[in-house]
């Protein structure tokens, strides 16, 4: 069959979360669409990201709670781990989530779907790996991302893996060296450790997940280092493939002696990189940043003033599913409306690390506020004596909230502690509604709940902004230690 040349109004490259969102929005306004996918259907989240990682974290958390039996006055033993059964459930449920996504894609109009890889020939033309080509009036780049693997790790040879590989395991390994103390490294490293795997986590510059507030970051470092081997600023001298695995030669601290440990695998959790380096962007007129990502407006997803839009992990902004979904819908709407392109207010930034204790970031970060010279006050609370947290033996944590001294508006916060996945959501909602700290404090707080710790931080923040009195200590309406 001779190569086919097709003309469409909108071409969408990629069918992940952002690509699917873009398709649904564009489909409302036009039937002239090419939805192009070269790989497997299904999102990063469902296949190798947020969902399978939580499937591994869940049994790890259950087993860890058994370690606290004696502190509750209970008698029992820590469950043995059937690694094959753990990973069987992870794979089964992962495949179930992927199937849901595939069912959505199957419902898309068949005439729109094209199974091939795409590469720019010029600003309007895409060459397909099947030999065909497409000319599109508007194009949406939604090509996703892949693990970023430093060349230094190549010495591990066949024992080098990424989180993309972990969820295909048929059994748990005996040992893993995890490199990268970001979200993925923290979550997988701690979960594997709690499931009985020998784990060492290697970080850099004392970074912990997304935290930028020095007080919260230092608290997190101290907490995690008590839970498992965590070399937050270690110096790795050599990575070497040996007969029984991969050998790591390192110093945990600059003045420590050299340590040599051997692991079954080296897990590279060193971030992800946008899949934009192999789609022919050099053949377009787009201006690119130093990472090779097109310059774009995050409020419209438009690349420069062009007819090309970019969404999701491909733009290397915030690689989270809810952000990719929002970006995809915005890109699809504007591509369909082009040349009328509208800006939309973005949702308040919200990030959660499902470690134990959990980490949450919301709104403006400490770094962002500091670098922009904002005059902000800080309200702080420890969860170590917070009533509900202490009852549950989950009383480890520190929350720091930031408020505008002039307006009293809550700006953001960084935190580690129990239930942060819920507290961060509450904070994000109030920030998006531009509520003042005083207004938030008028909302109902039940007793006894972890949220009382949030209220204590807000009361301290109100006082620090000069807009309220000194908070009462251990008052009756707060509850003990709230």
From TrEMBL:
Assigned keywords, A-Z: FAD, Flavoprotein, Oxidoreductase
Cofactor section: FAD
EC number(s) per entry: 1.8.1.4
Domain FAD/NAD(P)-binding: 9-328
Gene3D superfamilies: 3.30.390.30, FAD/NAD(P)-binding domain (3.50.50.60), Fe,Mn superoxide dismutase (SOD) domain (1.10.287.990)
Superkingdom, natural source: Bacteria
Domain Pyridine nucleotide-disulphide oxidoreductase dimerisation: from-to ranges: 352-456
GO molecular function, one term: dihydrolipoyl dehydrogenase (NADH) activity
Oxidoreductase found in the keyword field: yes
Pfam families per UniProt: Pyr_redox_2, Pyr_redox_dim
UniProt family annotation: Belongs to the class-I pyridine nucleotide-disulfide oxidoreductase family.
UniProt-listed NCBIfam families: PRK06292.1-1
Protein name per Swiss-Prot or TrEMBL: Dihydrolipoyl dehydrogenase
Species annotation: Agaribacter flavus
């Amino acid at each position: 069959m001779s190569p086919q040349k097709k003309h469409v109004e909108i071409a969408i490259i990629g069918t992940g979360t952002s690509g699917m969102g873009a398709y649904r929005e564009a489909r409302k306004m036009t039937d002239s669409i090419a939805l192009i996918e070269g790989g497997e259907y299904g999102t990063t989240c469902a296949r190798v990201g947020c969902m399978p990682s939580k499937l591994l974290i869940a049994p790890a958390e259950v087993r860890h709670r058994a370690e606290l039996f004696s502190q509750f006055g209970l008698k029992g033993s820590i469950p043995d781990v059937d690694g094959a059964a753990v990973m069987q459930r992870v794979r089964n449920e992962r495949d179930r989530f992927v199937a849901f996504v595939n069912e959505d894609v199957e419902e898309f109009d068949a005439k729109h779907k094209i199974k091939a890889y795409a590469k720019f020939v010029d600003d309007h033309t895409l060459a397909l790996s099947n030999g065909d080509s497409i000319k599109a009036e508007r194009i949406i780049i939604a090509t996703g991302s892949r693990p970023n693997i430093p060349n230094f790790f190549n010495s591990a040879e066949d024992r080098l893996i990424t989180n993309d590989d972990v969820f295909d395991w048929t059994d748990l390994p005996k040992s893993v060296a995890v490199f990268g103390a970001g979200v993925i490294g923290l979550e997988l490293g701690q979960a594997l450790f709690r499931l009985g795997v020998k784990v060492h986590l290697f970080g850099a510059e004392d970074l912990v997940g997304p935290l930028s507030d020095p007080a919260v970051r230092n608290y997190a470092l101290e907490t995690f280092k008590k839970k498992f081997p965590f070399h937050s600023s270690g110096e790795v001298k050599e990575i070497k493939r040996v007969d029984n695995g991969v050998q790591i030669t390192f110093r945990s601290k600059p003045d420590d002696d050299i340590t040599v440990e051997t692991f079954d695998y080296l897990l590279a959790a060193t971030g992800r990189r946008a899949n934009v380096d192999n789609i022919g962007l050099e053949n377009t007129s787009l201006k690119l940043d130093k990472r090779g990502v097109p310059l774009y407006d995050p409020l419209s997803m438009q690349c420069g003033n062009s007819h090309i839009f970019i969404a999701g992990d491909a733009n290397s902004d915030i690689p989270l599913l809810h952000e990719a979904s929002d970006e995809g819908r915005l890109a699809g709407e504007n591509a369909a409306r082009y040349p009328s392109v509208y800006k939309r207010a973005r949702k308040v930034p919200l990030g959660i690390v499902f470690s134990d204790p959990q980490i949450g970031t919301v709104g403006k970060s400490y770094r962002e506020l500091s670098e922009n010279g904002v005059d902000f006050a800080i309200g702080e609370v420890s969860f170590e004596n917070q009533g509900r947290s202490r009852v549950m033996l989950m009383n480890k944590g520190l929350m720091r909230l930031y408020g505008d001294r002039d307006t009293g508006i809550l700006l953001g916060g960084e935190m580690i502690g129990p239930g942060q996945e819920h507290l961060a959501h509450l904070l994000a909602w109030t920030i998006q509604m531009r509520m003042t700290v005083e207004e938030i404090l008028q909302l109902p707080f039940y007793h006894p709940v972890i949220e009382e710790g949030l209220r204590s931080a807000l009361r301290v923040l109100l006082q620090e902004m000069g807009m309220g009195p000194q908070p009462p200590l251990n008052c009756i309406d707060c509850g003990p230690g709230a």
